[in-house]
Write a structure and sequence with these properties.
This protein is an all-alpha fold. It has one domain (4-275). The chain is built from eleven helices and no strands. Helix 2 (16-41) packs across helix 6 and helix 6 crosses helix 11.
Length: 277
């Protein structure tokens, strides 16, 4: 999901009180996520493994295949001129993503892995997972905003938007907007969190350790969106999602964060006059 409009809402503000609030918000956010990382560093992988049967070499081979395919898509997108996303493209991407998820789920079930237990779907209550996701997403925004500001000011990144953002901004019918909202708020967070946080991160953590897994997973997440101006903010966003998932032990937390981020992005796109600098 695009980040440009949301990030712009947290840009430099000439008002001193607002600027001071943002600085304090940024320090609190950095402190909280640093504390979460410290807590994770004190945990052993064996102590947070969950069920006895974990991801093994068969899952590693499947993950390598998925990563290789993602890299092919990224390479193909970067080598051709920008093409405007259409509704048909969105539906095709959705269908293909669902197929990939079904393949992974079927593979894991045939291997006898307990997906609900590995993903921590019942580790904490649904209400607690949603509440934790809302708080951690609120605390992630200043870090994402800072990454966006650094990208714009130091690397002179362009101002182009991701395809789905432009599709939503340029949509002319309520049906098209509703379809995009459902995809961005309800479907994409589930699919992406399952593939990136649950499966790919789970395999990366199993063989490369927790922190290298977080970094590589966030790099893949950012690169998969094939939008260079948003790469650094999306890397920070993906890192926050993975840290939240690893710390809470529940994929519902990162799904909540992802859905909330996409929802707020669409709100900013729908009401740009309320979020101008």
């Amino acid at each position: 999901m695009g980040s440009d409009s949301v990030f712009a809402a947290f840009g430099a503000d000439p008002n001193y009180a607002a600027s001071l609030f943002f600085v304090l918000w940024l320090f609190v956010s950095a402190g909280v996520y640093f504390a979460l990382i410290l807590q994770l560093s004190g945990r052993t992988l064996a102590g947070t493994a969950g069920p006895a049967k974990r991801f093994g070499l068969p899952e590693a081979f499947l993950a390598v295949g998925l990563i290789f395919y993602l890299l092919l898509l990224i390479s193909g997108s970067s080598s051709r001129a920008s093409v405007q996303l259409s509704t048909r493209d969105l539906l095709a991407n959705l269908l293909f993503s669902v197929v990939i998820v079904l393949i992974v789920v079927t593979f894991l079930q045939l291997r006898g892995l307990d997906i609900s237990s590995l993903g921590g779907f019942f580790k904490i209550s649904f209400r607690r997972a949603v509440g934790t996701g809302v708080i951690l997403m609120f605390l992630a925004y200043p870090l994402i905003s800072l990454a966006d500001v650094i990208t714009e000011r130091f690397f002179k990144a362009g101002t182009s938007k991701q395809g789905i953002v432009e599709l939503f901004s340029g949509s002319r019918t309520i049906e098209q907007r509703v379809m995009i909202i459902v995809f961005a708020v309800a479907i994409a967070p589930v699919i992406e969190e399952f593939l990136f946080r649950f499966f790919l991160y789970g395999v990366l953590k199993r063989y490369f350790g927790r922190f290298l897994g977080i970094i590589v997973n966030a790099l893949l997440f950012a690169a998969a969106h094939t939008h260079l101006p948003s790469f650094m903010p999306l890397f920070v966003l993906g890192s926050c999602f993975t840290i939240a998932y690893e710390w809470s032990g529940s994929l519902l937390v990162s799904m909540t964060m992802h859905s909330l981020f996409n929802s707020l992005t669409l709100v900013v796109l729908a009401f740009p006059e309320l979020f101008s600098q």
